[in-house]
Amino acid sequence: MKQSLEKVLAKKWMIFLLFVSLTYLFGTKTDRRYGWTNINVKEATAIYSDGAGYYAFLPEWFIYEGNNFAFNDSIGKKYPDAGFEDNLSNANGIRFNKYFTGTAQCLTPFFLIGHAHANAAGEDTDGYSWPYLLWLNAGMIAYSMIGFISLFLFLRRLKLDYFACYTAVISLALATNLSFYIYLDIPYSHVFSFAIVNLCLLQGLKWIQENKGLNLLFFFFFLGLSFAIRPTNILILSVIPFLFATNKELWNRLKALFTRQWNTLLFGVVLFGIPVLIQIYSFYLQMGEVRLNSYSDEGFSNWKDPYLWQILFGFRKGMFVYSPFLLLLFPGLVLMFFKSKRLFAGVLIFGLLSAYVLSSWWCWWYGGSLGFRAMIDFYGVLVIPVAFLIHYSPGIWRVFILLFIVLTAYVYQTYEFQYRKRIIHYDYMNYPMWKKIFLKEDPRFNFVFYSKIDTLPQNSQPVSSLMGFSVKGQPLKHDRVYGGDSLVIYPNTVDFMKRLSYPNLTRSDAFAGVRVSMDLYLGKPDENVNILARYFKSGSELGMDDMIISSRPRNIKEWEFIKVDLTSDHRWKDLDSIQCSLVIGGETTRFKNLNIQFFKYH
Q: Given this model, what pLDDT does residue 196 score?
């Protein structure tokens, strides 16, 4: 039966069907998210945050003729809610893009197609109208398929059966956060790294097995491009020697390369340098300096104390927590030890080295993300032990492995839904948070954890008595039920406010805290109720804390007493007033006995 299945999976139409299906899957997902065929379902724009920085090189190069990203201001005003202008900074009065240019280099053909499309369609040729975003989306999916196809061919060259190769590719697409960066956070660099690193692996292995100079040249070029995307991709070199069958074969090939084939090696070095020189030249145009590293104020500052456990198993970003499919890496490594000790050593050394380097970055959690995004670049290597495990497992064990993959794919897809619906916090997750929202899809959990701390310290002391809110200058009565009427509560717009000054506390070193209590009645599960506290000094707002409180009630359509605490980083001596607001997110929510109390704590 296994041989029959292999014959079917080996057919070209089956392989074609695999990648057409993946293309269709991510194409429909991006269509629903960005509203290409139906604007009414649009959830987001395709460029924001880090992606805006990676993308900004393209309009800078091809439309605005190197004006040091001055166009960014006008683009921000033209598309005020899109986030297109995110993450460009000013250095000595000069607008500066710190990101590496490899992602933009990869997207160049698709940007030029988008530019031609915008011209032909009569759309704005500003680099950000919908034809550019559409082709950016197409480029993202194209590179993801390049990565999957390269990985598939690489695994086949390791003599793994078709079933193992199919399963490895599909699992990465459905059960890891690689999926997230194919259609959600674009154009971040990770999908491009995944694709180009896998091309490096494939071309390197083809050169090792066939000794053709053309494969070596491709390897050098893709290695340089991967470096220009993310310099840490150069770590892929650590696994290449272990693709040789023996050390003797490695040594003989290197010896021939530096003697008889030196001209190929020299040309390869030139090809490696082309994408890297583009990066250096880009920095020179911006700052007038010849420098490779554009992250001048950021670096690997945790060499002596890397966050290894946190990036792998931590509940903030841990790779194995948010992509649990990858736990199969461990039994896969054990099996590889017995079946292919040399490749086992290569994957193990590479895995430990990459984990150490990536966990030494100053911002080891790498900002807002679903799981640990920096390791996505190397999923092509990390999935090798999983493919070995599937290949060598007998039939009954394959069933258990497939069941585990299906289960972890379900868990990951739930994570992805939670992230999209803002149930998983983009940054400040921890074990209590994770435990509370695990596999929860109730809309009431949206943004519930956006305050880092929601309990006042034990040493807190009240600085006011219980006070009621007021709306439009009229105090809320304790014996009256409010809400449940669209004429009274306009969703997401009406605040119930209270501002109180404390001049007698201006010399205190204590921090400001707020406690809000009420009886709450939720009529629908998707109604969010939000408490906000804004901090002021001389009329200027210094900051804000907020807390979604509609996850507190256990049941719908029942009255429940709730109490919410907001802690702040502001000291009373730096404030002269606090404004508190209650925002109702639905027309059936009711509340009564609403009170506020201010606290101080150290």
A: 97
Residues 198 and 262 both lie in one domain = yes
Do 55 and 150 sit in the same domain of this protein? yes
Which positions ≥6 away from 21 have C-beta within 8 Å?
none
Q: Full-prediction pTM beyond 0.90?
A: no
CB 325 within 8 A of CB 408: yes
What tokens were used for 524?
């629908």
130-186 residue pLDDT tens: 999 999 999 999 999 999 999 999 999 999 999 999 999 999 999 999 999 998 878
- Tell me the per-residue pLDDT of 275-311, one tens digit each, with 9 for 90 and over: 999 999 888 888 777 777 777 677 888 898 899 999 9
Q: Which domain holds residue 597?
A: 461-601
Q: For residue 425, is it within any domain?
A: no
Distance CA(357)–CA(300), nearest Å, equals 8
Asked if 58 and 202 sit in the same domain, the reply is: yes
Q: For residue 529, what is the domain's CATH number?
A: 2.60.120
Domain endpoint, select from 390, 418, 446: 418
Domain count, the chain: 2
- Residue 456 lies inside a defined structural domain of this protein: no
Residue 331 and residue 466 in one domain: no
Name residue, tokens 């900074």.
89
282 in the same domain as 189: yes
The band of 562, judged by pLDDT with boundaries at 50, 70 and 90, is confident
Residue type, 364: W
Q: Which long-range contacts (CB under 8 A, 24 or more apart) does 285-294 make?
A: 285/66, 285/68, 286/68, 286/94, 286/96, 286/97, 287/91, 287/94, 287/96, 292/231, 293/231, 294/97, 294/98, 294/99, 294/100
Do 414 and 466 lie in one domain? The reply is no
Q: What angle do CA 385, 318, 369 make, to 5 degrees?
A: 110
Q: What is the total residue count of the chain?
A: 602
Q: Report the half-sphere exposure of 143 (CA within 13 A, side-chain side).
A: 33
Task: Give the integer Cα–Cα distance in Å for 358 and 373.
Answer: 10
The 3-state DSSP composition of the chain as helix, strand, coil percent (nearest 5) reads: 50, 15, 35
Do 465 and 413 share a domain, yes or no?
no
Strand runs labelled E in 429-494: 461-462, 467-468, 470-471, 474-475, 482-483
Does 475 reside within a domain? yes
Question: Per the domain annotation, does 449 fall within a domain?
Answer: no
Residue with tokens 């160049």: 108
Q: How far is Cα 287 from Cα 90, in angstroms, rounded to an integer?
A: 11
